[in-house]
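Consider the tokenized backbone below.
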């Protein structure tokens, strides 16, 4: 859980928050956030906040976050966004290892 992800947050047609990495942005990642993280805003502008309400990433902005690749069953049965899983899973490290730019 000590790898670094750099990318941009987007939202798909189903309202699922995704991350895209690289210059062509073609690879989609589903970010699995630690418990207590939430999304604020709407499909035009949103931000991800941690349990203390600190912004860790914003839509359309480059960000960096720690963690590591996960397997499709990594989040567990209690994961609330299971229907949003597509592309690669990135398990976000906890706590406070990310920064918004």
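A designed sequence for it:
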């Amino acid at each position: 859980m000590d790898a670094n992800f750099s990318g941009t947050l987007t939202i798909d047609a189903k309202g699922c928050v995704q991350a895209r990495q690289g210059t062509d942005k073609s690879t989609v990642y589903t970010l699995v956030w630690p418990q207590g993280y939430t999304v604020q805003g709407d499909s035009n502008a949103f931000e991800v906040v941690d349990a203390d309400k600190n912004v860790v990433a914003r839509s359309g902005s480059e960000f960096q976050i720690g963690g590591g690749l996960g397997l499709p069953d990594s989040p567990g049965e209690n994961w609330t966004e299971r229907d949003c899983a597509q592309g690669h899973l990135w398990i976000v490290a906890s706590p406070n290892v990310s920064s918004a730019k």
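Residues 96-101 have pLDDT under 50 and may be disordered.
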